[in-house]
Amino acid sequence: MNQFGEWKSNLDRFFGQEFWGEFEGLMKPAIPQINLYQYDHELVCIANLPGLEHPKNVDVFVDHASLTLRGKIEVNKRGGRQLKNEIADGAFERTVELPFAVRSDSIDASYKHGLLIIKLYRYISDSTREKNVNVRYLDEN
């Protein structure tokens, strides 16, 4: 385990898991980095995944109003002793809460130049559309 991992593990044991949660993002950026754009009824998520050898190495899951990315980035080390470690590699998992529920039957994902681009479309159920409501007449008796 690297020094950061050991340090984090010791703090988790001492202060508890809840203590560390908010501070981890300050110490180490979330992986992968994500930009999320909202259009009328569409969301576009762009995830920075340099070093991803093939798009099959990332899984994209959509659950109502959340998007989860899970996979593995492998930076080719080719032996030698690592002197700097700034490029994130290894297994990752990140879940992002979306501003609205999205359709699970209409998702488009593509990968090019180290960017995973995911297009999601707002879920509009029949219950959210305008619906005529019958008004019943009640006797005052």
Question: Any overview of this molecule?
Answer:
The protein contains two helices and seven strands; from the N terminus they run H-H-E-E-E-E-E-E-E. With 141 residues, the protein is of the alpha+beta class. It has two domains: 1-28; 31-125, Immunoglobulin-like (Sandwich). Strands 1-2-7-6 form a four-stranded antiparallel β-sheet, with no helix packed on it. It has a three-stranded antiparallel β-sheet with strand order 3-4-5, with no helix packed on it. The longest helix is centred in the first third of the chain and has 13 residues, at 3-15. The protein starts with a helix and ends in a 19-residue tail after the last strand.
Question: Strands, helices and their partners?
Answer:
Blueprint: H1 3-15, H2 17-27, E1 33-38, E2 42-48, E3 58-63, E4 66-73, E5 90-97, E6 102-112, E7 115-122
Antiparallel strand pairs: 1-2, 2-7, 3-4, 4-5, 6-7
> How confident is the prediction overall: mean pLDDT?
79
Sheet with most strands: 4 strands, antiparallel
Q: Report the principal-axis shape.
A: elongated
Q: What class would the helix/strand composition place it in?
A: alpha+beta
Q: Give the % helix.
A: 10-25%
Q: Helix count, per DSSP?
A: 2
CA-atom Rg in angstroms? 22 Å
| E-strand count | 7
Quaternary organization: single chain
CATH architecture of the largest domain: Sandwich
Q: What's the CATH class of the largest domain, please?
A: Mainly Beta
Number of domains: 2
The CATH topology of the largest domain is Immunoglobulin-like
Order of helices and strands: HHEEEEEEE
The first-to-last residue Cα distance is: 78 Å
